[in-house]
Amino acid sequence: MRSRSGSGVRLDRLYVYVASTILKDQDPVTGLIANNAADFPAHAWVRDNVYAAHALWGLYRAYRKSADFDEDVAKANELGLTCVKIMQSLLDCMMRQAPKVEMFKRFQRPFQCLHAKYSTLTKGCVVGDREWGHLQVDATSLFLLTLAQMTASGLQIVRNFDDVAFIQNLVYYIETGYRTPDFGIWERGDKTNQGIRELNASSIGMVKAALQALNDVGDLFGDGSKGSVIHVLPDEIQQCSAVLASMLPRESFSKETDAALLCIISYPAFAVEDAELVDLTRETIVSSLLGRYGCRRFIRDGYKTAIEDPNRLYYNNAELQQFEDIECEWPLFLCYLMLDALFCKNRELADDYWHRLEDVLLLRGGYRQVPELYIVPSQSVAAEKLSRGSQDRVPSGTSPHLWAQSMYILCSLVYEGFLSPAELDPLSRRLAVYEKRPPCEVQVVILAETFEVQQILRERDVRVQTIDEVDSVFSIQPASVFARILQRLGESEKMNLSGRPADRDVGLLSTSKFYQLGKRFIVFTPQFMDHRRSHLMHDIRILMDEWRSELQYIYSCWNSASISGRPLVVLVITKNMLDENSVFGPGAVNPLMKLTVVASIKKISSGYLGGARVVMKNINEFFRTTAVSKLEFHDSHIDDLLADEEPEYRALPSVSGANPHLRRLDSMSEKDRRSKQFSAIHKASMRHRSIFIDSNDADLAKLRLAYANRTHSPAAHSPSPRTPAQRSVSPPDLSPAPLHAKSSPWSVPNSIAVYDADGVELSGPTNVLHSVGSLSSSMNDRATVSPSQSNARIDVAALDGMSIKDVVDMLNDTDDLEEQASLVHYLWMKRGPDFDTQLNSATGITVRLLMEELYSKACTQRMWGLVRLTSGILTKRLDDLPKAVTHLLVRQKQLTVGIPSKSEEPITCPKTNEELKDIMHRAYGEDPNSFTLAQEIIISLGSLVRTEPKLFVEMFRLRIGLIIQVLASELARIRQLTANEAAEQLLAISPFELKSMLFSLLSGRLLEEVTEESGVKEQRTGMGSIRKQIETTKSMRKSMRPMTSIQCDIQPDADALLEGVSESEGDDFSFGIWLRHRRIDGALNRVPPDFYASVWDTVRRFPRGLSINGIVLHWGFTQEMTRRETKFALQVEEVLNRIPEPEYREIIVEALSLMAKLDALLKNERPRISNDQPCDVDSIVRKANQIFIDHNREMDTIVVDCCGSGDASKKCDGARGICKHFYDSAPAGEYGTAHYTIRAIIDIFGSKP
C-alpha cells in the first residue's frame, strides 16, 4: 500500500483545521456559516462567508493539484461543492431581496439596500432595514468578484438565467459605487460611529475589481450559452479608477488611511494599477498602523478598547483622541500583508510576517486559531499612551475569527507551496500593476448627415461618407437607443427587475466600439452629440471643445478600462453645424478652443487633436481593429428597439422645425394703440433678465476690481450721502406691484454698487445683478418721488387697462423673438404656465408650450440671454449636471450653491438626481437666470477638473455664487462696462465664452491677459505661482515714489522662510494686480499646499484654539480629527467661508500659513501663548497692517496720502479697515505682506524686551 507523501500529510492537516475552525459552524441546510454564535446567534455576514468560501476554494484547488489517492479527489470534490453551496446560498439570500435591488438602482437610499447579514437558518433577514449599517457596497462587490474568479477556475455557481438576470442587476446595483457613500467595511461609517455614511476608497476599489472581473470572465455558464454574459460599461470602471487615484492612501473623510485598503491594493481585489500608488498606500499603512500583533484598523479606532463604553454605540466627538495609541490590533492584516509579500515574490518579507503571525496565534483544542483582535489591558493603558507598542496585549473578541481564520488558511496554502499566487487569481488581475500598455490611438469616423452637407465639406477639401453610403451591415444609432437596450439587459418579469435605469448616462467609452447583434454591427454616436440633452451643444465652440476633450479622454483611458481592440468614435455632421456666421460671437476669450467644425475635422485627419493620437477613415476600414461586444438575449431580441426610434443626427435644430404657434399676423391696425402697453410689459419682463444677488451681499459689494482709467466726471467719483435703505432702491423702470405680488414665481429685487479702486461707485446703486421682486416694497423704501417713478405709475396704468386678449393679440402681431419672449413671460407671471392662450383659435396652446417653443427658438438662434431665462423659468435641469457634480466630488472638490454668505447650501458628497434637483431649487428657486447659469458653471468645472486637474490642486470647496460674482465684476472691469451692461453681457455670453473665462480665472491669469494673439499659456496656478510672479522691488510703493531702504530687525531665520521668490519676467508693474489676485483667489477658495495640516498643528498648540473673524476654531477639533483628516479641512473652510471679503480671507490664509512656522520665527524663544483665551488671528493681521503703515510713513510713500496721513477722513476703505495698499502688496519680499506679518507674529508671541 502506497504511503502518504509529506505534502499530503500537511494538506490533510490543513483540511482538519478547516473542518474544525470554519465548517463546524456551517448550517447543514443553508450552507451559511455563523461567525459569532455568542453575541449574534445564527447571523451570517456576507463578507465573512465569502472569505470562508475563499479558504475552501483554495483548499479545493490544492487537493485537485496534488491528489495522491482517490480519497484526495473525493475531498476536493467535497470542498468544491461546499464552496459552491455557500456562494449559491448567498445568492439566494440576495435574490429574496430583489425589490430592494430595484429600488436602490433608482434612488440609492440606504434603507433600500441589500442586507449585510442573513439568517443561517432561513436565509431571511435578521435585523430591520434601519437597524444596521447594511449599505456595504464592498461586501456585494466582493461576492461578485469571488463569483467571477471561481467561475474562471471551473466551478459553476450560476444555475439558470434567473441567476444571470439578477447578477446583471447587481452590476447595476454597484456600478454607481464610486459616488455612493456607504457604511464601509466596518459597518459604522464615519469613525465617530454616528451612522454618517462616507465615500470609502476600500468600497470603491472592490467595486472596480468586481466590474473588471465580471467583464473578463465571459459567460457564467462556462459553455458559451446564449445570454449568460454579464455586460459591464467600461466608463464605470474608469470612474472608479479616477476616484481611487484621487483618494489613496486616504480611506474617507474621517480616516486618513485604513488597513482595509490592503484588500484593494493586493489580494483579493488588485484594483490599483499604479505601482507607485500601491507602494505609497502600503507604506502609509505599515508606517502608521502596523504593530506587534497586527494592524490597527485606523487611527483613533475605539472599537473594543479598554476605555470604550460598551453600553454606548456612538462616540462623543471629543473622546476620540483618548483612543489614540491604544487602538486594538488585528492579526487579520498580518495575513493580508503576508499574501501581498507572496504575490510580490518578496520571500524575506513573507517570512517576517509569517513569524509575526505564528506569534499571535492561539492554540485551542489542538488547533491554531486566529483571534479577532488584541487589546491593551486597562491597567496598561497609561503606559501604552506614553510609549506605543511598549505594553503586552491580550487577545479579545471572537476566536477563531471566521474572516481572519480563512485568510490564515490561504496564507498557509501559498506559503507552504500547495498553491502558487496565480492559482488564487485565475483572471490574472495581479498582473495589471506590472503590465503597462501605451495609449491606444482613437479611430474616428466622420459622417455627413445628407448629400448637401457632404458637398459643403467637399468644397472645403474634406471628403467623408454620408450615412446612406455606409455599408448596410453597419447600423448607426444614437446613444439614446443604447440606453434603451441596456434597460432590457437584466430585465426579469419574475423578479420585477427592469434592467439599467434609464436616467443613467451612457459613457463615451461604452459607445466607442462595435456591438454585434445577429449579423449586424451597431455603432452608437456619443451621448454628448445629442442636442436634446442640454442647450450647451447648440454652441458649436462648446461642441468642438467636447470633441477635443472627449477624444483625449478616450486616448488616455482606453487601455486602463481593460477593453480588447481599439476605440471607434462616429461623429455625424449636420448642416447647422457648418453655419459659421452663427457660430462665433464677439469677445471669445480662449482662441485655442475656437475651432470651426471644418478646422476640427482637418486636425483629426492630420493625426492629432488636443494631444490625442487619432486616425480618420471610413467605418468599414476599421472593422478588423475595433473592439466588439456581443449583444444577446436568451429569450428575446432588440430589433424592435432599433425600429421604434428614428435616429436623429442633428446637433442643432433648424428654425423651420419649430412649432408655428408664434407668428406674425397681417393685420397691424392696432399696433399704435398697443405700443404703450407692450412697452410696460417689456419693462416688466426685463426685470427678470438678470441675476439675483442680495443688495447687502458683502462678497460682491467689497469685490472692487476696477482699476481702469477713470473716464467719469469728478462728481461721479464721489459717493453720494445716502442711507443704506436708499442704496438698495431698485431702478425706476420696474414692473408694477400687482404683477409680482400676485403671480410671479420669482421674487427678488435689490441692487448693488460697483466700485473702483478707491471704493468710489462707478455706476451708483443700480441693479448690477438684479432680478424680480415686489415693487411695493421697493417703493416704500424711497424717500422722494422722482420723474422715473412717475413713469412707473404710467406703466402701472397701462398694464391695469390691458386684458389678456390684448396680450395674446400682440403675440399674434409680432415675429420678433425678444418681443415674443416678453409677452409670453408676462402671461406666465400673470396667468401661470397652464393657462390656455387659444392662440390662433386653437386649444391646448398653453403658456408652458409657448415657453418651450421660445426656448427651442432661442437655442436655434443662439440668443443665450433668452436661453438662460426660458430654461430657468421652465426649471430645466441639464442632463450633464449630475455627472459634472460627481466629477468634482469624487476628485475631492466640494461645491456650494446659492447666495454667498447668505443662503449657500454645500454639496459635500455625491447626490442622487432627485436630491440634486431639490438642492438646486432651494438655492435658486427664486432666480431663473442663476438657476441656469449655475448649472452651466458646474458643468464647465466638471469638464475642466477631468481634463485639467492641475487647475484645482489648491482648492477644496468651490463657491458657485461667488464665482458668478467674480465673473460679473471682472467683465465690468475689463470691458469698462456699467453695472447693467455687465449683468446683461454676463447672461448674453455664450457657454463657450463662460467656460473660457472660468479657465482663465482658474489658471491664475487675469482675463485681460488672455488675448486672441497670445492665447492661454500653461502655468502653475494659485498662491504658489503668485508668490513667484513679481519681485518686491517692482512693487507699487517703489513705482509710485522713490524710497530709501531701511534696516529691518527681522531675524535671519525669518528671512530664510521667504527664499525662493523669483523675479518677474516683465518690467512693468500693474497697479492693483495683487489686490485683484487676492480677491480672485479668495473667491475661488485657494489655499497653499498642506495648509489644513499646518492649521491643525497651529490649533493644537493653542489651548483655547484660534479665533478667526470672531469664530473660534477650537482645540477640541484636534481631539476629534486627525492631522490630515478631510473633516478637519471642512471645519476650517466652514470658518473661512464666513469671511465675506475675499481679499481679507486671503490675508488670513497667509497669516495662518506663517503661524505654522512659529518656532522657526522665534528661534529658541518659547512663544507666549495665552491659556485663558483664543489666539486672535485678526489681531495679527491688524498688527501687521499697522507695522506696514508705520514703515511706509517713515519712507514717505503713497500710503501717507491715505491710512498713513493720521487723518481719519483720509483713510482708504480697504476691507476690515486694512489699508488697500497692504492688500496690494506682494506676499513675499522685503516689502511684502509676509514681512510685516512675521514682524507682527514676533511682536505678539516673542519675549517682551
UniProtKB/TrEMBL annotation:
Coiled coil (residue ranges): none
Localization per Swiss-Prot or TrEMBL: Cell membrane
Keyword Cell membrane on entry: yes
UniProt cross-references to InterPro entries, sorted A to Z: 6-hairpin_glycosidase_sf, 6hp_glycosidase-like_sf, GH15-like, KPBA/B_C, PHK_A/B_su
Basic and acidic residues compositional bias, start-end: 663-675
Region Disordered: start-end pairs: 652-677, 711-744
GO cellular component: a single term: plasma membrane
Pathway where this protein functions: Glycan biosynthesis; glycogen metabolism
Protein family (similarity comment): Belongs to the phosphorylase b kinase regulatory chain family.
UniProt-recorded name of the protein: Phosphorylase b kinase regulatory subunit
Lineage: Eukaryota, Metazoa, Ecdysozoa, Nematoda, Chromadorea
